[in-house]
Amino acid sequence: METTWDEDTVTALRASLYARTGAIVDSVRGRLTDEVLQMVGDALVTAIDDHLNGARAIGAECAAALRVRDWTGDDVLADQLEAALGMSPTPLLRPLAVDLEDLASVLEGDPVYGGGRIDLRTGDTWPAMITDEVFDDDTGDPDRWLYVHCTGSRAGYRDMESFIDSVTDPDLADRLTLAISGRGAFRRFKDVLAERPDQFHRYQLFTGERSRGRARQWLADQGYRPRPHRR
């Protein structure tokens, strides 16, 4: 299975996400695939709110695609897009300028390091091993901190299993299945994929989408939604 988003196009897409301009609409028009739905969703909410040309059509397309894909967190983002489009009530979630990739790394990191916390004033996500060194105000103030308990790597392991199901090369699929057996599964899995850069890139997009969705769902369960940073 091939990807429509190679490394160059993903780099350009990320640049358009950072710019928060109409470039995001142009970047995904005609190729809004499963590989980028979570990645672009928040930017499309902002584009709709800013009345950017073409944003409503792309936003509706993204919401519909999320409903069909139906991975963890997809319905949360679809709700947000549909609310921005005026199709449904606004979800009762407080906006928080949090980076979902940072949150996912704390949520699904090594349990030995014990999760972390989100600064509700800034949206910054801090791993526990850093906050213990940087902050000395461990007061448990709920108005400042949202604590993140590490859920471990089980979801990431399921991502590898699901990715293998999408691999159309039987030999590669067999090698990946063997790689995820026993300790060191993540390292062996990536070592095998390293021999196929195209598939490794596709896996990075795949697991990135899934981990962002899980982070989004966790945040919604706490009563928050990501608020994109504006330039």
Q: Which stretches are low in confidence, meaning pLDDT under 50 for 5 or more residues running?
A: none
Number of strands: 5
Order of helices and strands: HHHHHEHEEHEHHHHE
The rough form would be described as: globular
> Can you give the mean pLDDT?
91
Q: What separation lies between the terminal Cα atoms?
A: 37 Å
Kindly give the count of domains: 2
State the strand order across the main sheet.
3-2-4
Major sheet attributes: 3 strands, antiparallel
Q: Label the structural class.
A: mainly alpha
* Count of alpha and pi helical runs: 11
Rounded radius of gyration (Å): 18 Å
Helix fraction, binned, reads 55-70%
Describe the structure.
With 231 residues, this protein is mainly alpha-helical. It has two domains: 7-91; 93-231, no CATH class. The protein is 56% helix and 7% strand. It contains eleven helices and five strands; from the N terminus they run αααααβαββαβααααβ. It has helices spanning 7-19, 23-28, 37-49, 55-69, 74-84, 100-107, 128-134, 154-166, 170-179, 185-193, 197-221; strands at residues 94-96, 116-119, 125-127, 145-148, 224-226. β2 (116-119) and β3 form a beta hairpin. α6 crosses α11 (197-221). It is globular. The model has no long low-confidence stretch (mean pLDDT 91).
